[in-house]
Each structure stands twice: as structure tokens, then as C-alpha cells.
Design brief:
Chain lengths: 324, 362
């Protein structure tokens, strides 16, 4: 009888133990294809930081024509990496996205012009063709043009070209200036023989026209559940640990990114360059949203009529406060 | 009454009764009560003839009552969806009976247009009720009323986009079809070319647009010429193949007759073989009209100045303005159908002699 009771008790304890070991499942939707722009998350998964926090994380790569806001609205992901412009626009359209963390403190967006096009300042933009990416990446550019008073409509001061996600328009001389990310297309330009000595570079952060870029967003109703909020907190903690690791070990991080890429498109040399540049934009010790940058971003979006009014409750500090 | 009509009639009356029962317990609106009662009363058709227009009227009234009752609840109760099903059943019954009546010559043929119109309207109506009633997020599927609102508010944008895309469509269509036509005549003239050029035409048509479009943008620049180039690549092969088939359509007895008249190759071509090939050529033109529009819109996804239907669709998807995307789709659908219709009308005029136009059977 005593043995039987002991066996029962042991069984009950084993059951509760397995219940506690059950990991929280989270799906992360990236804003673009698997590349070092998302090194923190890829490193955290590869090095087991998520498992340490009792999380089972699936990372979904994005790509052209994948809008993370639509994926989360359709229930395909729990957390998305998105630029604040896109997330605010989605919130305005009825998708209740809330910013829970902002790892990217600085913007990596630049506009570069070959020196032979004689564009040395904003005043020289009149009558020129400027390449701009769309899909949520156009808001910083249009906000800047609005600030400078240059019209971008048909027949306006500047001609806007929908640029493909590479530097072809500059090489083919179809655009006078093109948009690049410091960590991606600028590297392609450097490889093609361009550099600071033969390019005029307009860096959005230096000009003070930067809008907030990669942040983490979740659906507002899920924040009502304390268990979910706890899962998100652990996720952000492990992700920032991943970013810290990537900063300290860029070569290993680049290798992890290449290994994580199922398409085989990622090249080690380019990803190593990207890791170096991206970690300059991230602050691994502080994922909190910077209010000045937030206000500036929202104001630019409202002025541009991308959103009808400043949103309420578009961000929460619950998670970043818990990590302080 | 056919078996299908009997089943539909019973089902419609039953579902109306259920709607009434559940609804009376759960706060149903007055118009929907009237609809439920009317639906139930149609069982009278088993005892005395009930005109098919009554079914139509019940369906229409039900549609109006449902649209009216959308605002009543945040989460629509079961009886609301049952009412939608009942309304759909009555519309189906109406269309079924009308089709039979027209076939049996009890109703004039001209009324036949009612059937596709009713079908289209019920689809739009069901879409509206489901998206608004089930609170489908606007970023996944907007309601037709929202799309219409956006359409009427964005006419200048839509017009500018339409003009830009159609420059590419018309230029590409004209060039591609003429090129296909000319090559077909060359192929007909020379057996050497027939063996050499036809397989290449096949190859060109198999190239995926998604692959050609960026290359054309690199060759011809960002503006509409590169889109026209893509359209040329898409429309060339159907025109070539159909014209070659058409040129072989005249029978040997007719060609022998031209030979007895000492007609030269070109006289035979223009007076006999091309008119005989006309049905085939128009076939190709009709196919190409839709392909051209598709080609131009898809090509605009790959680098374009900021105007054009493809550009607008791809970027507004990125901005989650799905209602504007649907408005563009609606404009593209109407424009494509109009383009096709114009070619069909020209075909009727040119191939007036063909049995299919004369209403007979070949």
C-alpha cells in the first residue's frame, strides 16, 4: 500500500514536471529574407537562447510581396519584425499592432548619388529622378520631401522611380539617385566600385529624417493574457542576448545567418559585411522605444497623410520595463 | 416542378421557418420577420401555382432586410446566417425557374439577361453581408460598399493609372499581333522558315513574364516601353500559331479554283486565304487582349514610374489599402472586358459569313 501511494505521488510529480517543461510556442515573421538584418533572432535560435527561456520559436523569412502586417492579421505569426511606418499604417487600417520593443535605434536608410550627376545638396534634386522602394519603405523618403517642400507628384519637382531591391537603376543610369540600406545595398555599391569619394551620400539619420525601423510588434488582444506577456518578455530578453552575441562575435553570427538560410542565397562575405553594419544600428542593452524618435516618426506619418491621426496605444513599455 | 425546384422550395421554406423561430427568440428586426413569414408562406406553391416573380421578390426583399439588419449586432447570431441562406435559396429558385421558363418559351428570350445579372448581384450581396456581418478585417477582404466608396473617391488616380497601363497594352498588343501575323505569312511562304521559326515562337511564349519583365526594364528603361516589350513577347506566339492554322483553313477545292483563275500567290492570299483565316485570327486577337492586360500589369510590378495599374496594386498592397487594390482590380476587369468586347464586335462585322455569327452550327 505504501509503495502504491509512493508510486502515485511520484507519477503526479512527474506529470507536473512535464507540464512545467512544456515550452511556449512563438512564431516570428521577419520583414525580409533571412539575412544578417535579423542576426539577433537567428543567433538566439541557433545558440539556444530561446530554449533557455523555455520558448519554442519558429522564424519565418519574409521577402518581396510578403507584408508582415498581413501575415499577423491572418494569424500566421505571433510577433513580427516591421518598420514603424508600416505598423502604424496597419493600425490605422484596423490591424491592432502594438510595438513591444525597438532594437533598431538608428536608421540604416540612405540616398546615394554618383558624383557625376552633380547633386551635392537637396537643392540639386529639382528635376532629377530618385529611386525609392515601396512596400512600407517609402515613408521616410516622402516625409523628407514633404519637409523640404519638394513635390513628388506627376510633373512635380522630383521624379520618383519605384526602385527594385538592388542598385541596378544607378548602374543602368535610369535614376540619378537611389535608396540603399547601409547594411545591404550600400555594400553592393561598394562592390561595384562606388564609395564615399565618388558618391554623394544623404544619410537619413544624420539629416534627422530617420523614421524608426525594425521593431517587434504583436496583436493588441494578446497583451491581455499575462502568460503571453511573460512569453514576449522572455522572447525579447533572449533576442537582445542574441544581438549582444552577434555584436561580440560577428564572424560566427554571419555563419549562423548563412546556415539558417534555406534558399541558399545568403553569401558569407556579404552577410559578414551586413552583421558589421547592422550591429551599429542596434543597442543590445536597451530595447526600449525612444519617445523622441517615436514622436518624430508618427508626426511624419500624419503629415504625409499615411495615417489619419496619431494612434493611441500603438506601443507598450510593459515588456521593456520588465527587462530593465 | 422539377426535382431540383422541389428540393429548393422545401429547403427555402424550412430555412425561413427556422430563421423566424430562432429570430423571434433572439431580437430579430421587423423586415426580417416579414421575410421569414413570406418565405414560409411560399409552401403554398405545392397547392396552387406561385409565379416565379414571387420567388424573385422574396429574395430581393430578403436581401434588403439583411443589409438593413447588419448593424443590429456586433456578432451576428445564427438566425442571421440562416436568413442569408434562405435568401440565397430563393434567388437560386427564381433563376432556376426563369431558365426553365425561357427554355420552354413561356418567357421571352430577352429576359435571359436577368439570370447572369441576378447571379452577379447575389455574389456581391453575399460578399457584402459576410464581410460586414462576420467582421472580416478590412486588410484581408474589404466589403464591396467600401471598394465602391474608394473607387468613387479615387477617380483621378485610377484614370492616370489606366492611361499609363493602356499605353503599354495598346502599343504592345499592336506590335505583338502584327509581328505574329507577319511571321506567320513568312512561315507560310517558306517551308525553311516554317521548320526554323515555329519552334522559336514556342520558346518565346514559354518564357515566364516574371523573368522577362526585369530584363526588359533593364533594356528599355522604367517607363511604358519596357511593359509594351513584355506584352509583345506574350502576344506574339498565340497570334503566330492561330494565323498559321487559319492560313491552312481554306480547303483544297477553293485553292484549286483560285489556281484555275491563274491567281498569283498574293491574290490567293488576300482574296481567299486571309478571309478564311479571319475566324482564327480574331480568336488570337481575343486571347491576346486579355494576355496583353495581364502582361502589362504584371510587368509594372518590376520598376516603374509611380503611376500605372500594376504599380498601384503592388504598392497599395504594401500600404494595406486593400480597398484601393480591389478598385484597381475592378477597373482592370471592366477595361479588359471592354477591350475583348470591342474585338468581338469587330469580329462580328468582319466574319459575318461564318456560321457561328449567322446563328447556325458548323
Amino acid at each position: 500500500m505504501k509503495k502504491f501511494v509512493m508510486a502515485l505521488a511520484a507519477g503526479a510529480m512527474a506529470l507536473t514536471a512535464t507540464a512545467a517543461m512544456a515550452q511556449d510556442k512563438l512564431t516570428l515573421q521577419l520583414k525580409w529574407v533571412t539575412q544578417a538584418q535579423f542576426a539577433g533572432y537567428l543567433v538566439a535560435k541557433a545558440k539556444g537562447f530561446y530554449t533557455e527561456e523555455n520558448l519554442d520559436v519558429t522564424i519565418l523569412p519574409g521577402g518581396p510581396n510578403v507584408a508582415p502586417e498581413q501575415v499577423i492579421a491572418g494569424g500566421g505569426a505571433d510577433i513580427i519584425v516591421d518598420w514603424m511606418g508600416g505598423a502604424a499604417a496597419a493600425r490605422d487600417k484596423g490591424v491592432p499592432l502594438v510595438n513591444i520593443a525597438q532594437p533598431f535605434k538608428r536608421s540604416g536608410l540612405m540616398l546615394i548619388c554618383p558624383k557625376e550627376n552633380n547633386i551635392n545638396s537637396v537643392a540639386d534634386f529639382k528635376g532629377k529622378t530618385l529611386g525609392v522602394w515601396f512596400f512600407g519603405n517609402e515613408y521616410p523618403f516622402f516625409a523628407w520631401m514633404n519637409k523640404e517642400g519638394l513635390s513628388t507628384a506627376e510633373g512635380g519637382d522630383v521624379k520618383v522611380l519605384q526602385q527594385s531591391f538592388d542598385i541596378q537603376p544607378m548602374i543602368q543610369k535610369q535614376a540619378d539617385c537611389i535608396s540603399v540600406m547601409t547594411y545591404n545595398e550600400y555594400g553592393q555599391a561598394l562592390d561595384a566600385g562606388y564609395g564615399p569619394d565618388n558618391l554623394t551620400i544623404f544619410n537619413y539619420t544624420e539629416m534627422g529624417n530617420d523614421l524608426l525601423e525594425d521593431g517587434l510588434y504583436v496583436m493588441e488582444p494578446t497583451l491581455q493574457d499575462p502568460a503571453r506577456v511573460d512569453a514576449y518578455t522572455r522572447f525579447v530578453k533572449a533576442s537582445m542576448k542574441g544581438w549582444g552575441y552577434a555584436l561580440e562575435n560577428p564572424d560566427e553570427a554571419a555563419q549562423i545567418v548563412v546556415d539558417s538560410d534555406d534558399t541558399g542565397a545568403a553569401e558569407l562575405a556579404h552577410q559578414r559585411y551586413m552583421v558589421g553594419e547592422v550591429t551599429k544600428l542596434v543597442d543590445p542593452n536597451d530595447p526600449a522605444l525612444d519617445m523622441a524618435a517615436y514622436e518624430r516618426t508618427i508626426k511624419a506619418l500624419v503629415d504625409q497623410k499615411i495615417i489619419s491621426k496619431a494612434p493611441e496605444g500603438a506601443y507598450t513599455t510593459v515588456i521593456t520595463d520588465a527587462l530593465k | 416542378m422539377s426535382r431540383l425546384q422541389r428540393i429548393l422550395a422545401v429547403a427555402a421554406a424550412l430555412v425561413s421557418a427556422l430563421t423566424l423561430l430562432l429570430g423571434l427568440a433572439g431580437g430579430i428586426s421587423v423586415p426580417l420577420v416579414i421575410f421569414g413569414v413570406a418565405g414560409l408562406l411560399t409552401v403554398a406553391r405545392f397547392f396552387t401555382p406561385v409565379s416565379l416573380w414571387i420567388d424573385g421578390a422574396v429574395a430581393a426583399f430578403g436581401a434588403w432586410a439583411l443589409l438593413d439588419g447588419l448593424e443590429l449586432f456586433d456578432v451576428e447570431p445564427l438566425w442571421f446566417w440562416l436568413a442569408l441562406v434562405a435568401c440565397w435559396l430563393f434567388a437560386w429558385l427564381f433563376v432556376e425557374r426563369l431558365a426553365r421558363a425561357i427554355r420552354a418559351k413561356a418567357m421571352p428570350d430577352a429576359l435571359g439577361i436577368v439570370i447572369p445579372v441576378v447571379f452577379g448581384l447575389s455574389l456581391l450581396f453575399a460578399w457584402e453581408v459576410v464581410t460586414r456581418g462576420a467582421n472580416v478585417p478590412q486588410v484581408l477582404l474589404p466589403a464591396p460598399s467600401m471598394i465602391w466608396e474608394r473607387l468613387t473617391a479615387s477617380v483621378p488616380t485610377l484614370t492616370a493609372d489606366f492611361v499609363q497601363t493602356f499605353k503599354a497594352v495598346l502599343a504592345g498588343f499592336a506590335l505583338g499581333c502584327s509581328a505574329g501575323f507577319v511571321v506567320a505569312i513568312l512561315v507560310d511562304r517558306s517551308p525553311f522558315l516554317k521548320r526554323g521559326l515555329l519552334p522559336i515562337g514556342n520558346f518565346v511564349s514559354a518564357l515566364p513574364i516574371i523573368g522577362i519583365a526585369p530584363i526588359m526594364v533593364m533594356w528599355f528603361g522604367f517607363d511604358w516601353p519596357s511593359k509594351a516589350a513584355v506584352v509583345v513577347a506574350m502576344t506574339f506566339f498565340p497570334m503566330l500559331v492561330n494565323t498559321v492554322a487559319g492560313l491552312n483553313a481554306s480547303s483544297s477545292i477553293e485553292r484549286d479554283l483560285m489556281r484555275t483563275y491563274a491567281a498569283s500567290y498574293w491574290e490567293t492570299l488576300f482574296k481567299l486565304r486571309l478571309p478564311a483565316a479571319a475566324p482564327f485570327i480574331f480568336n488570337a486577337l481575343k486571347i491576346n487582349s486579355t494576355l496583353a492586360l495581364i502582361g502589362a500589369i504584371v510587368a509594372e510590378f518590376f520598376g516603374t514610374p509611380i503611376v500605372g495599374m500594376g504599380f498601384r496594386i503592388s504598392t497599395e498592397v504594401g500600404k494595406l489599402n486593400i480597398d484601393l487594390v480591389w478598385a484597381e482590380i475592378a477597373v482592370a476587369a471592366v477595361a479588359g472586358s471592354a477591350f475583348y468586347g470591342v474585338i468581338a464586335l469587330i469580329e462580328r462585322a468582319v466574319t459575318f459569313w461564318h456560321p457561328s455569327i449567322r446563328g447556325g452550327r458548323t
